[in-house]
């Protein structure tokens, strides 16, 4: 291995310095031939017939046999021979016969899991939904403060970058970052039950679709949310990781649904360990990660609409005057389809006050009463799909989710009878299995999730496209997320008063008067006689 001076110089080497010198092809450095091996069934590699020297060990593929992706072990230096830690006067040998020098290395891996979930059940357009990103934390260790690159670094641990990037679909919007919360811990079932990271532990930035910052209070479609941990946040997370290997970071935020259609979402996580300062500046993280980062899974939500035409059985009832407009409310139904399934129940709420509200695009306010227009038509847009909630299939008989809806007429056009019967309908994503399949989606050049070119004829994600699809096998005329139906009113007809009403009493008084008059006339006649 050379002279004492050479041995001392080799002993002072740091893996990070060696990696940097190799990558930059620095002068004065000599590297031998690279050897590449894959771990066997037991996760081991056995390199034999190695020359004496110093070796750089790097993990280049961290996918396990179970398909999970693990965080790669940090690069390390292997010295051959190596002093026996149990006997400083001897080397480590392969066997008791000292047939060859040997070193056993156990690189530490941690599962690299980045997951996206959504809570959107029974949420309509105009409501907020909840996204959660859970991201595993790589194995960490304390920084060597003697290293030149660590001087001036305020962190204690080598976790130097942790940032999350989320491109919101254009049908979603965040007015500000007040709803953005970060937690860390091991409870994956209840992310918000973990330790909340204080505001000084992270920054949250909103970017417009054009890459500029979104002013506070301004709602912009096609936004990008970027959350980056500060040095303080990085150390808190790293310390928790050191104490509990299963520690994860959880980002939770609540965008508002602004338009109907199919809404996919995916996040990117960028995390990095090593010496020196991080690559991401938390105060100015930028809208894209420094490199590709790690994608989460894709989650999808869907909202549709019902289109109504008011008729008298033959022709539309035109709403040219306010009195001629019909008014409707929509209520959710659990346990199936009302009037069809025995367990179906209309969720009227207390005092019939649980009518569904959706965003009125004209006033930007939530409304629960809908009027027909001059042509006798009405479109209620923004109702959540009945067969997909929280990115899971909905049991058609579920008791806690809206498995269908009913349309209830609350005011009939003037001179027409009120249609008292609740009208059931279902809003479904027809291609729900394709929607839930990762290969149905891809990313455009801006990182936005969009339909894969091979699936464009199958998947339509805007209502304008969805309306072109029709189906004949539904409760009404139903396409993908779009239902159309006629609501019939009959003209008001003269009615006889009901038994026991005021009209009966009036007839009673008239009858008495007639009888009384008859008695009086009889008396007069008898006197004359």
TrEMBL record:
Native organism taxonomy: Bacteria, Bacillati, Actinomycetota, Actinomycetes, Actinomycetales
Record-annotated Gram-positive pilin subunit D1 N-terminal domain positions: 20-110
Family matches, as Gene3D superfamilies: 2.60.40.740, Immunoglobulins (2.60.40.10)
Name of the protein described by the UniProt record: SpaH/EbpB family LPXTG-anchored major pilin
Organism: Trueperella pecoris
Chain intervals for the UniProt region annotation (Disordered): 273-295
GO biological process: carbohydrate metabolic process
Membrane-crossing segments per the record: 500-522
UniProtKB keywords: Membrane, Transmembrane, Transmembrane helix
